[in-house]
Specification:
About 40% of the residues lie in helices and about 15% in strands. With about 375 residues, the chain is α/β, with parallel strands linked by helices. The chain has two domains: about 1-10 and about 260-370, Aspartate Aminotransferase, domain 1 (Alpha-Beta Complex); about 15-260, Aspartate Aminotransferase, domain 2, CATH 3.40.640.10.
Amino acid sequence: MIYLDNAATSLLKPKSIEAAMMRAMATMASPGRGGHKPAMLAADTALDCRQAVSRLFGMSDPEKVIFTLNATHALNIAIYSLVKNRDRVVISGYEHNAVTKPLHAIGARVAVASSPLFDPVAALEAFESRLLGAKAAICCHVSNVFGYILPLEEIAGLCRYYGVPLIVDASQSAGVLDIDFSGLGAEFMAMPGHKGLLGPQGTGILLCRNSAEPILHGGTGSNSAIPDMPDFLPDRLEAGTHNITGIAGLLAGVRFVMRQTPAAILEHERRLCGLMADRLERIPGVRVYRAVNPEHQTGVLSVTVDGISCEAIAEALGARDVAVRAGLHCSPTAHRTAGTLETGTVRFSFSPFNTIADVEKAAKIFGSVIKNL
């Protein structure tokens, strides 16, 4: 199979991740649940992972690295910590449902800083015109639909200037772009473990500048005698038993990313993305959503085909062992902004383990599928 759905889940992973997870399953209990060797080994692994994540994202305090179930869980903690009913919240025009649905549930008043695709100047103008008086701002670093890199550092600077706390969704940038969380001054940054960090599903991370409000209560290994959740991180936000097998795999993934470097991974994925765009643009009827300036896009590429549904294309590709994703990708806001809400897109997304041969073969199969449909 040619797997090109890495923006959803990184299926191809370093062998070290499987080895780390098998080792954890065989030797580790739960951190904070005893002084015996299996519990202490688990505690050491969790701490090692927090420290590695801190180094990767420019943090000084590993205790402010919170393990979550996924990025959606992390975003919910961040949003419920900052946003109340009727609060006005500014979001980009490319946000995922992991942001918009919690805001809807809370009853927030959402101001969408909508701006054209691959236009960072317009994105900045849209944010600046809406930030005054907002209670919070939320911005995805990279659009999961189009690979568009929003001007996060500049948006963070505007948020600091207007005194608006910022939540960053780094679901598509963690492990691919260099990120200095401390330098941004954002209040929170959320990310999954199973995308660019190459870890297993069921893992996620929330980076905190200060503290936050828990959305789950109970089950920590500290302060058992008091009825409230602990008032310190990470315990305050980590209720229940840790997924230590997943954390061990995540640690191996983070270490792989650090060895390869996000810059090298981005260069590789961007090269493959550009090659795929070149090949698909030659096919009549295909519209490729590609940045004029390659610096504005990661290794995520969306396309549409005149007169053919995206779902039909993805199904036909899947039948020929090319894995892509089609539809709205859980991001109707992004499609509304880009004008693809009625059609959705076919999305190709690359990983460090994809090759030029994968791209050439997949593009050839795509062309054949279009002719047959």
